[in-house]
Amino acid sequence: MSRAQPLSTPTAGSLGRSDLRLIAELIEPGSRVLDIGCGDGLLLEFLVREKSVVGRGMELSQTGVNASVARGLSVVQGDADTALSHYPDGAFDVAVLSKTLQATRDPRAVLRQLVRIGRRAIVSFPNFGYWRIRLSLLLHGRMPQTPSLPEAWYETENIHLCTLLDFLSLCREEGIAVDHAFTVRDDGTPKEITSPTLANLLGQDGVFLLRRD
Amino acid sequence: MAGPSSSKSPEIQRALPGHRLEIGPERPLELDCGAALAPAVLAYQTYGELNAERSNAILVFHALTGDQFAAEDHPITGRPGWWEVMIGPGRPLDTRHYFIICVNVPGGCMGSTGPKEINPETGEPWGLDFPVVTIADMVRAQLRVLDHLGIDKLFCAIGGSMGGMQALQMAAHHPERVHSVIAIATAAHHSAQNIAFHEIGRQAIMADPDWRGGRYLEAGSVPRRGLAVARMTAHVTYLSEPALHRKFGRRLQDRGALSYGFDADFQVESYLRYQGASFVERFDANSYLYITRAMDYFDLAADHAGVLAGAFRDSPVRFCLVSFTSDWLFPTSEAKRVVHALNAVAADVSFVEIESDKGHDAFLLNEPEFHATLHGFLNGSAERLDLPTGDLIPLELGERDPSEERIS
Questions:
Q1: CATH number of the domain residue A30 falls in
Q2: What is the mean pLDDT of residues A112-134?
Q3: Which residues does substrate bind (chain B) (predicted)?
Q4: Could you tell me which of B325, B323, B348 has the C-alpha nearest to residue B337?
C-alpha cells in the first residue's frame, strides 16, 4: 500500500513563473482560495500542499481541468467571463487571477466579480508598458514578442493587454483598493511598487493585491 | 434461446449469487407514494474488503437496466459485469483498497423486491399493484443496506445515468452519510426529451398484447416485442450518430444488395434487433415501466422551490461531475447546471467533460482519460481521509469486449 502521490509535488522553486511564487507568498495559510485560470493546477497544488489552503480552481481548457482533477484538486471547467457570476459574495478569502485578465472578453466585469466573490483578489498580468515592449515597437514597428508575451499577434489569446498604469487607473474608476502592488523584474525578483511610472517602464509583470473599497 | 420466463422465475432469482437483505414488517421501506413495503428484499453484491474502521466503502449505484453484478460475470447472461472496466485491482474503484457495494434497486428484477416478485397479500406477482418507486426511495433503501453493514459514512457514492441521479440525491438528502459523490453522465432532473423517449418505451410495452395489463407472468407470456422495441429505442439514445456511423455506416447485413422488403437489410437494424431480443431474456417488462418512471419523476430542485442550489446549501460533500461530449441524452449542459448550483453555494466541486464520440454509453466503456480523472479525484479524497491509495493498472481488453452489449 502506498500513500497517494501527486504527479509531481511542486515546491516554490518548481512553480517556475515568478509571478506564481509571489502570489503564493501573498496567500495566508489555511485560507479559502479560488484560482481562476488555474491551468494544470500547479499553483493550486502548491497552495493546497504547502499552505494548507482550501483550494478550488476554474480553468477554461478541458485538458487543464482534467489534469488538475487527476492531481486530486477540486477544479471545474469554466470561463472567467461567464462562470464567476454563479459564486456568492465573499465565497473565498482570496480569488486569484494569474495572467488571465488580458485574455478575458470583459476585463472590467471580471475584475468586479473577483473583488465580489473574494474578500481579497490577486491579479497578475504582463505589463505592456515594459521598456522592451515599448522599444521593440518603436524600433521595429512590429507587435512585440517577449518572454511574457511569446506568441505572434495572430495567435495570441491576449485580446485586452494593458500597462500597469492602465490597470491602476481602472481600479480607481471601479473603487477597488490596491493593498499591495509588485512588479517582477527581468531577473524574476519581485519589487514592491513605489513609483508607478517607473514600475510601468521597468516591470515585466505586475502583481496586485486588491479588495473592494 | 431460453424459455419465455425461465430466467425470471422467483426460484431462479433466489438462487442468484450475492447477498440478500430481508426487510421485515417492523421497519418497512417507506416510499414517497405513501406505501410501505414489507416484507421486502434487497439483493446486493460486494467486492473488496471493508476495513476495520468501516471507512473505505464505496456505494455504486446502477443505471436503468443495470444490476448488482457490476464487476463479475453476470449469473444469467454470462457476460462481463457492466462496470468491470471501473471496478477491480488497479482500476479506479480499486478493490485492493476500497470496499465496493452495489445494490439492485427496489422495483428492479434481479433479486430485489419488484413487480415480478410475489405480493404477500395476494400470493400472485405484484404486477402493476407494485407501488411506484422514486429515486429518493431507491437511495433510502440502499441506506438500509449500509445500516445492515454497519457503515455510517461512505467514502464515496458513485453512479452514471440513473446511478448519477441517485448519487446526487444521496448528496442532497443524506450528506452526513457520504464524504464524496461522483455523478456521471446525469442530471438533476429528467428532461422533457428524456421523458418522451421513456414514454415511447412504455407505450411499446403496454401496446404488446402479451403484456396483458401487466399480468403476463400469471398467463405465462412475455411482452417480448414491446420490451424489445423499448430497448431498441433506448439503445439508440445511448449512442451517437458518429458512433453508429463508425460501427455500421450503411453497410448491409449478410447480403450483397437491398432486399426490397422489410428484413434487416442494414447491419444497424440487425444489431438493434439483437439488442432488443437479448434484453428480453434478462429484464422484466414491468420493472422497465417502474424504473423509467422513477427517472421521469426525478427533479432535485422541486423540493427547493425550483432552485437547485437549495438542494446543496452548506453541503460538506466533495463533488465530481463528469459529462461526455457526444452524450445527447444527458448533455454537458445538464452537468453544468449542477455545477453552477454547487458553485452558488461555494461547494467543493470538480467538473470534467470527457471528449468521446461514444455517446451516453461512454461512461460504461474503456475511456482512459475518464478513468484517470476519477482515479485522481478518488486519490485526492482518500488523502484527505488518510486512506491508502494505489496506482491505476492500464486496462488490457481481451477477447471479451464488454462494449458489445451495454446496460445503461
A1: 3.40.50.150
A2: 96
A3: 231, 361
A4: B323
